[in-house]
Design goal:
The chain has 316 residues and is mostly beta strands. The chain has a single domain, classed as TolB, C-terminal domain (Neuraminidase, 6 Propeller). It contains two helices and 25 strands. The strands form six sheets. Strands 1-24-23-22-21 form a five-stranded antiparallel sheet. The protein has a four-stranded antiparallel sheet with strand order 4-3-2-25, with no helix packed on it. Strand 10 and strand 11 form a beta hairpin. The chain is globular. The termini are far apart.
Amino acid sequence: MPGLHSIPTAGLFLAILVLTLLAACAGDRAPGTIDFDFDINWEAIGERRILFKTDTDGDFDLYVADGLRDELRRVTDDSHYNKYADPSPDGTHVVYSSNRDGGDFDLFVVNLDGGGLQQITANDVEDYSPTWSPDGQSIAYEANENFGALFQIFVIDADGTNKRQITSDLYHNYAPDWSPDGGSVAVFSDRDRNFDIYVIDLATGERRLVADDDTYAHFADYSPDGRAIAYHSNPRGDWDIYVVAADGASPPVLLTTGRAEDLEPDWSPDGSQIIFSSSRDGDPDIWVMNPDGSDPERLISTRGRDTQPVWIRGAP
């Protein structure tokens, strides 16, 4: 049997080049067709689009369930951990957190079709939970940049320039969500030892307590009219979805019950529904319900963990 030394030099070079390219592509592939089974309720989604993440193919990637085409598409397809994604207001781009450039997480922006990847932050700290401003010009996020283990809120222009720090205190401040008018961000913070929901006025820095929770209130999401905030918390021993008035004038209302983990609410663009992840059928799937918690319905299910759903706004 001929040995490797018998391969002509040109052929050996070509073989090495091909193997090198294949290895590179295996670690960071372009978005492609879906190669796993999924169950999507296209009728319930209607002519709308949903961005979510799942680890069905072995690592967490971002996907779009497109009700206009009854089609599931990849946004990212690589060997990295991609999470906390948020679509731009015009529905053309996605900002997300990923460890694709090393051990820490930075912010990246990609076209909704998976092309045009841009890195927005590059540092040695953790940058999480990015969210677009309503005008699409800025991105708010959390990072542990200046206080070591303490996370603070930052805002950066969408092109990665003009970074400014919004919070600067001796408490954690996480997961900003812009108010529809762009004047405030809702965050969760441990200023009272447990985590509560606060609204921060971006012009004055004034902080208002909205949901005073005895446990862990997380991941606030403004309703489209700015009058309510949805979030998840676990005062009953499991995670549930709550809604509270954005001015804090009335107590929170419990929307989900049972022993399932119901997490990560996001209002539909017209305010008529709330999407969320739930483990009520086993592994987390994507569900939807009315703003009062009625008529819960499963929308998206794969064999993996389907989490962090967000409605895509803007024209397709």
